[in-house]
Amino acid sequence: xxxxxEVGHGHGHGHAPHAxxxxxxxxxxxxxxxxxxxxxxxALRAGDAACVLPRPDSRESRxxxxxxxxxxxxxxxxxxxxxxxxxxxxxxxxxxxxxSTAIAVGSITAAALAGSEAVRxxxxxxxxxxxxxxxxxxxxxxxxxxxxxxxPDVPVERWHAELVDSARLEAFARWLNAAQHERVQLxxxxxxxxxxxxxxxxxxx
Length: 205
Description:
The chain is of the alpha+beta class and 205 residues long. The chain has helices at residues 34-46, 59-84, 107-115, 117-126, 134-144, 158-183; strands spanning 14-15, 23-27, 30-33, 184-186. It has a four-stranded mixed β-sheet. Helix 2 (59-84) packs across helix 4 (117-126). The chain is globular and about 55 Å long. Mean pLDDT is 86; it is low at 1-10.
């Protein structure tokens, strides 16, 4: 079960269109190496999924590059956040976050969560305080035809735990969007794949 909260289409980045070719993006006004992206793309092209990847130099391939760039930027942003929170991030979270349904908050966020321990740790920390209200739980229980839990903060049923994890994932997605807006500047050619202003995005509002 996923909570009905829309994260939205805002991509949360500033832009620095004029940048050296070896710069992937700017994080806190410091360059992030393009090499991180090139290595990830090379690994994809050399992996088992190479046969289903788009032809190099195609529109779809450029969109794939933008998509992978966003995953790498998300990872680097979360590594930066862990450095900022060095004194407050526990080795293991008190309430581990189930990221199996993370695709609900977007494929980029889901891929970053699946592939990076730093992203998962930040997601756990920034979403620890998320709670589901009793009214929400009673509504969900009514829809499912079950009894609402006695304690809203202690999931004892799977559907309750899934509802909490969904809300926590959405809270992380909102945190991520705000942090990207504040700290990240994209460079020309590596805009967000969903940015309607970049030439390879066929979706228009």
